[in-house]
């Protein structure tokens, strides 16, 4: 009968450790899925913006056809955004896109008749709306990454999380912070 107490203690400890591992694994899976979902939201918004840009370029081209370098920069930034495969590449592309949009809107400001065009104003408003959605999606993604990375790094999770296949994720940070320190200026 004396052996029953130590065996019972070992069984209870194994059960507690097993429940802890099960709960931690499930929470890591949930956080991982949340981060994947958030990244998907970002790519949807980046794609939406990329789909709006050709229309915006064509509208501005009608008034300022001689601004070829600006249009080429926007087109190149759009291609870079669409080809980005992860947060690091997307961060670089986002910096270039913000600079290109700023140049495009600066060109548009020089043409009062363009500023009066209903089509241009609608496209401009759609771009602004999409930029807001990208920022919100980015904050949601980075919040999910922060939670997941913290859960992976804290003790005792750090002893087994990587062995279970969980890795820290990259934040979506724009490489050139000055490029997004001020959003594209839109005047109506």
UniProtKB/TrEMBL annotation:
Listed InterPro entries: LemA-like_dom_sf (IPR023353), MamQ_LemA (IPR007156)
Compartmental location: Membrane
Gene3D superfamilies tied to this protein: LemA-like domain
Membrane-spanning parts: 6-25
Broad class of where this protein is predominantly found: membrane
Keywords: Membrane, Transmembrane, Transmembrane helix
Topological type in the membrane: Single-pass membrane protein
One Pfam family of this chain: LemA
Domain of life: Bacteria
UniProt keyword Transmembrane present: yes
Classification via PANTHER family: PROTEIN LEMA
Family recorded in the similarity comment: Belongs to the LemA family.
Protein name: LemA family protein
Naturally occurring in which organism (per UniProt): Microbacterium candidum
């Amino acid at each position: 009968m004396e052996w029953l107490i130590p065996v019972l203690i070992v069984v209870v400890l194994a059960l507690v450790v097993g429940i802890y591992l099960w709960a931690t694994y499930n929470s890591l899976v949930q956080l991982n899925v949340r981060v994947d979902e958030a990244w998907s939201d970002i790519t949807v918004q980046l794609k939406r913006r990329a789909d709006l840009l050709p229309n915006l370029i064509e509208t501005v081209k009608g008034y300022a056809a001689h601004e070829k370098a600006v249009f080429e920069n926007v087109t190149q930034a759009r291609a870079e955004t669409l080809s980005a495969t992860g947060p690091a590449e997307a961060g670089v592309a986002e910096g270039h896109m913000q600079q290109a949009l700023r140049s495009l809107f600066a060109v548009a400001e020089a043409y009062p008749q363009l500023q009066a065009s209903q089509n241009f104003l609608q496209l401009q408003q759609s771009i602004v709306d999409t930029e807001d959605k990208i920022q919100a999606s980015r904050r949601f993604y980075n919040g999910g990454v922060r939670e997941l990375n913290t859960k992976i790094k804290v003790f005792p999770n750090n002893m087994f999380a990587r062995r279970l296949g969980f890795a820290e994720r990259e934040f979506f940070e724009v490489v050139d912070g000055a490029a997004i320190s001020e959003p594209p200026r839109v005047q109506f």
